[in-house]
Amino acid sequence: MMNLITKGYVTAQVNAQEFMKDNRGSIIEYVMIIALAGILITAAKGPLTTLVTDLVASAKDTVTAAAPGNDG
């Protein structure tokens, strides 16, 4: 069983090394995608912050209003 696990690990390691050697252009593409995701997250942060803040405040008001013993 350990021999099979070791062979699987070695195969995965060799495949990963071959991928890194053969796909250097792809790594640049991955970096560009990550940068684009960062830009999009930064652009959406303001509206999302407002949305989440309003949602939490609304949920807090709802829970407080529905609490036992609170006649409003």
TrEMBL record:
Domain of life where this protein originates: Bacteria
Keyword Transmembrane: yes
Entry's transmembrane regions: 27-44
Keyword terms of this UniProt record: Membrane, Transmembrane, Transmembrane helix
This protein's name: Pilin protein, major subunit
Source species of the chain: Yersinia thracica
